[in-house]
Design goal:
The chain is of the alpha/beta class and 267 residues long. The protein has one domain: Rossmann fold (3-Layer(aba) Sandwich). It is built from eight helices and nine strands. Helix 3 packs parallel to helix 4. The termini are far apart. The structure holds nicotinamide-adenine-dinucleotide.
């Protein structure tokens, strides 16, 4: 997609962090932005920021875990802007606990919010993009979906791995039909996500080794660039590429190295 002037971009989880950073990056390029988030105050604040750049802004309070909210998001977007060009499925939540303690209901909740939200979005927005014969889908996964650096967030790892797999398969389906697909796999980014973590027991928290915390605004710029150039894999930390090469070259050694880098389980 060469120009974003007058295009319409829908971003779930757009009220904070990476979603907000991406909303503002697209707005600076002239796109109208629909900010969808379950937090009404954040929706209003980011929609105001988008509008201040001079483009059209629409805030829609949306829980991506609810079918009716997602349908209302599509309807409100079409009513206001008449079309959809870019859909960014960006909501993700983290549940922390040992593999043997995270309750099944927490798994269900994570799958609902992190994965089935994407399915809902596909059902609602893909027919519009296919009808147009152009558009772009951006799915936010994580480095957690590319390689294992922890064991204490299995529902997150499972759903983010699934988002990577679904995105890659979607690219096979959609690219030949003129629709781009990107999967964003951030390393550590300074956002509000930690405040929403659901903890189930006391367990050390592990992070991908050697990756510096970055700000959400440059992540938004990376997303805009990926849509512009129709790039599939979007890494916020280029060194993740080397990690993936090491993993592919020697999976046994990779697992051993990852174990060696974990925080001690017993204090
Ligand atoms: P954030 O908490 O700053 O923003 C996420 C937004 O999603 C929040 O405004 C929250 O209100 C909203 N949200 C949560 N549940 C929702 C729901 N059910 N319906 C609608 N909105 C909901 O977090 P972030 O770090 O910007 O996260 C964005 C995405 O980036 C997530 O998918 C996350 O997994 C991914 N990610 C983040 C990091 C990181 O280090 N921050 C790293 C890798 C991947």
């Amino acid at each position: 997609m060469e120009s974003f002037d007058g295009r319409t971009v829908v971003i779930t989880g757009g009220g904070s962090g990476i979603g907000r950073g991406t909303a503002l990056a697209f707005a600076r390029e002239g796109a109208n932005v629909v900010v969808a988030d379950r937090d009404g105050e954040r929706v209003a604040a980011v929609a105001d920021e988008v509008q201040a750049t001079g483009v059209g802004a629409l805030g829609v309070v949306t829980d991506v875990g609810r079918d009716d909210d997602m349908a209302a998001l599509r309807d409100a977007t079409l009513e206001r802007f008449g079309r959809v060009d870019v859909v960014m499925n960006n909501v993700g939540i983290i549940t922390i606990g040992r593999p043997e303690t995270i309750p099944l209901d927490e798994w269900r909740h994570a799958i609902e919010v992190n994965l089935l939200s994407l399915v809902r979005s596909l059902h609602l927005f893909l027919p519009l993009l296919l009808e147009q014969g152009e558009g772009h889908v951006v799915n936010t996964a994580s480095t957690a979906g590319l390689f294992a650096y922890s064991y204490e967030r299995l529902p997150y790892t499972a759903t983010k791995s699934a988002v990577v797999g679904v995105s890659e398969s979607l690219a096979l389906y959609l690219r030949p039909q003129g629709i781009g697909v990107s999967v964003l796999c951030p390393g550590p980014v300074s956002t509000n996500i930690a405040g929403d973590i659901r903890f189930h027991d006391e367990v050390p928290i592990n992070a991908p080794a050697g990756l510096q915390l970055m700000e959400p605004e440059p992540v938004g710029e990376l997303v805009v660039d990926a849509v512009r150039t129709n790039r599939f894999l979007v890494l916020t930390h280029p060194e993740v590429h080397d990690v993936l090469v090491r993993r592919a070259a020697d999976p046994e050694q990779f697992v051993a190295d990852q174990i060696a880098s974990l925080a001690p389980l017993q204090p």
